[in-house]
Amino acid sequence: MSDQIFARRPTLEAVAERAGVSRATVSRVVNGGSGVREALVEKVRRAVEELGYVPNQAARTLVTRRTGAVAVIAAEPETEVFTNPFFAEQLLGISRELAAHDHQLVLLLTEEAADYERVGRYLAGGHVDGAVLFSLHNDDPLPEIVRQVGIPTVFGGRPGWPGAEADRSLLYVDSDNRGGAREAVNHLISLGRGRIATITGPMDQVASVDRLDGYHDMLMDADPRLIVEGDFSEPGGARAMTALLDRAPELDAVFVASDLMALGALRVLRERGYRVPEDVAVVGFDDMAKVAEHTDPPLTTVRQDIEEMGRLMVRLLLRSLDRQAKDAPVGRPLSSVIIPTRLVRRATA
Amino acid sequence: MSDQIFARRPTLEAVAERAGVSRATVSRVVNGGSGVREALVEKVRRAVEELGYVPNQAARTLVTRRTGAVAVIAAEPETEVFTNPFFAEQLLGISRELAAHDHQLVLLLTEEAADYERVGRYLAGGHVDGAVLFSLHNDDPLPEIVRQVGIPTVFGGRPGWPGAEADRSLLYVDSDNRGGAREAVNHLISLGRGRIATITGPMDQVASVDRLDGYHDMLMDADPRLIVEGDFSEPGGARAMTALLDRAPELDAVFVASDLMALGALRVLRERGYRVPEDVAVVGFDDMAKVAEHTDPPLTTVRQDIEEMGRLMVRLLLRSLDRQAKDAPVGRPLSSVIIPTRLVRRATA
DNA sequence: CCGAATTTAGAGAGCGCTCTCAATGATCCT
DNA sequence: AGGATCATTGAGAGCGCTCTCTAAATTCGG
């Protein structure tokens, strides 16, 4: 039990002395060791080992201006980030990819106004090299904050505030919501369905709008009564389905913009005595783990690879950091990425 | 669009010059401003404002040896940290409490052997002031790592490795698993049940053992056939219930060590035609949000305040950091905290 | 109104590390 | 062999901030 809690950790200096070389040489060895004779490298390595030397990150950051950390920022309040499996899976992807590149993950949640200020200060303080940002609603102040701070940022989901489209410097990763919706609706059409309704997500989120756009792409002049706005929750889906059935009892298919809402819709359909898919075909969106497969009947849905989204966000961010670091502006400018979706056929359509 | 991405941020020096004072004075103002004339304070404040000055954390850390960040470490592999609502809620509490104290949350997940080494290096590098650790299994190497690094740590859940009990310096936050279990079983007894079985959690986790101990406290010589080990999952609970029913069909009550397992148990009981609670009374553990209330029938269970656990872990850690910082060893030594549980009566018992 | 006590401000020494630049010795070419 | 080239190494200057220590300014008692 050698509890060294208060003992100061050894410094570069100490290692240098022990190895009988200069600080510079130790630094070189610690950071890759090129240009140092093998004999010395060995000596330094041994000294490092014996002293249990670990570089002090603060000192290093002070001169390199690199922290090796990335902030993950999300607005918690309305969406209960953690309980949201969508976010959880993205976070997992982010965490894994960061670990793979030896970077750290600093989690920044905002709930109240004061938090925004805190986050701004934090980012400006140079704690992190870049940020990955989930700005779930279009009126969120976070994007403006990161812009002001001037910190490299990658957005999760296509930014939706006014002017965002035009700004090519904005980096984001999104799934192909519109294409996925198109594929879903197309599938319903190919099944011979003629009255295809849709339950959308909240219209202040870009993903919802995109999915609705995809619906419209295939059904140019859809009856407005066939379109109801939901809120991405199970009960919301149930409410929307109820509304739909009241307004247009003759519908024979529904494209539901999320699996969770589809769950609610399925429940209402069952309660009202509709058979799925015979009377009403249903297609969801997400292919959420532990949900879509276990609905009754198993849900046909549009799969998006959430973890991969997280990973790609990190990769994009790190690449953009490399760009601005070295004087190596090689290649063409980085651009956002859209991840393809894929229809997973199960039993509801 | 004043994109200042590459512009260096202003330094203390710059503020000092602008305000016409020394660096020291600016530093004093920025850090509380006591001992500086009001006139100067005002001048410095203005300069800070005009320049948009934000202290560089790396430089500050280098001298103060304080980072204002805390690591949250968890072993991801087996338990899928993020999907685990238990952990999610704890993380939420941790995040909120840290934010309240203006500290940052660095998330460290370990999946493979290489990650442990990375985490060790990270902690030793002085990136964080302390750590909050979830070591879910007794053979996890993380506790040993934090010990070696000598970083102040608070454990989530009572540490269970050999010798842990004796070590009073170990700080942890746990709920009163044993007491909660006792209360659950006691309730079943008071209902007049005579054959009370239990489905435990995995026996390599302390919480499971504690809950089983609570069961034994009330049922000193329980029939071993009435005890089956589960794995905290829904299907695991179902399997365990099946086994129980096969071994001891005459049972009239079950204390299930988690809500998720209770869910599975309820399902099996229903399938086998047992009425709950008439034939078999059931009590769960956790009072998990969105689960316990919505089972059929609603689950009677032992409530533990998970978010509060997270908050307390942080509070304990920060207090312990304060202790070792100042030369102010006021008061008696810090000690671990056990959070009380509470029986929530619903319909299953 | 003067010296002592008390505030308030500035100078300057680091914190531990990286990185440029110059010095050293080894190697090469004609 | 002699100068040029190249590979290694060390010296030392910061990075931006805090903090101690001293100097200057202010207050106060007698």
Description:
The structure is a homodimer of 349-residue chains. The N and C termini of chain A lie far apart (63 Å). The first copy, chain A, has twelve helices and twelve strands. In chain A, strands 2-1-3-4-5-11 form a six-stranded parallel sheet, with helices on both faces. The first copy, chain A, has three domains: 12-55, 434 Repressor (Amino-terminal Domain) (Orthogonal Bundle), CATH 1.10.260; 69-174 and 308-339, Rossmann fold (3-Layer(aba) Sandwich); 177-303, Rossmann fold (3-Layer(aba) Sandwich). In chain A, helix 1 crosses helix 2 (23-30), helix 1 (12-19) packs across helix 3 (38-51) and helix 8 runs parallel beside helix 9. Chain A is elongated. The relative contact order of chain A is 0.12. Chain A has 349 residues and is α/β, with parallel strands linked by helices. In chain A, helix 5 (85-100) links the parallel strand 1 and strand 2. At the A-B interface, helix 4, helix 5, strand 2 and helix 6 of A face helix 4, helix 5, strand 2 and helix 6 of B. Strand 2 of chain A pairs antiparallel with strand 2 (104-110) of chain B, so a sheet runs across the interface. Chain A binds a DNA duplex (30 and 30 nucleotides) through helix 2 and helix 4.
